[in-house]
Amino acid sequence: MNTLMNRNKMNRNKIHNRFRCLTTVFLLILLGACATTTPVVDNRAQLVLASSKLIKIVSMENVIFGRVGRFTNAQVDIRNLTGKPLNLEYQVQWRDQGGFNVNSMSTWQRFTLAPRQIESVLSVGKVEEAYGIRLTVREP
Question: What is the mean pLDDT of the chain?
Answer without folding.
Answer: 81
